[in-house]
Amino acid sequence: MNSSQLSKLNILWQNFDVNRHLRQQQKGQKACCVWFTGLSGSGKSTIANLVDKHLNINGHHTFLLDGDNLRHGINRDLGFTEADRIENVRRVAEIAKLMVDAGLIVLVALISPYRVDRELARGLFAEGDFFEVFVDTPLEVCEQRDPKGLYAKARAGFIKNFTGIDSIYEQPLIPELRISTVDVSTLEATEAVCNLIENNGVEFI
Fold this sequence. Notes:
- The chain is built from nine helices and five strands; from the N terminus they run H-H-E-H-E-H-H-E-H-E-H-H-E-H.
- It is an alpha/beta fold.
- It has one domain (17-199): Rossmann fold (3-Layer(aba) Sandwich), CATH 3.40.50.300.
- A five-stranded parallel β-sheet has the order 2-3-1-4-5, with helices on both faces.
């Protein structure tokens, strides 16, 4: 047993009187995490933003964790190697869990390319608190959109370990919701996500 493992034996969980249940009551809602996954340019952040806006307008307490934005702060020390991507997802999942404990509806927009990492994220939450939304946009469509010019740079060799080009993306096997952005509009996708939240026991109380 190493020193890190030994030190953890002396760290006990501290319970407090103000808990998730009280925070949910205060906000009049049941908290959850909606995890948007898909290729770069698939529309994750766009849809998550519209869902966030819809919920906010209707008086709900939310927070949107966007992968690119987090890399400007808490994850700015991480690159795009496999190990760094795993750590990126781990940190975001832990933050999302804290925010759910705070009584918030948390929207996560993150490529999160590896299936096992998304399952580890799910494992942090109680059953019914985590919804995986697969924004299913074909690679060729994402490349055509290329809103940030990243695919062009990756194809030219200026960006390494780019998901979909020289780094794999593992599609979800059984997501709570699959959105084909080729077949539906962003407004229809937004409605589908809001329905998912309301129809799976995360009623607004």
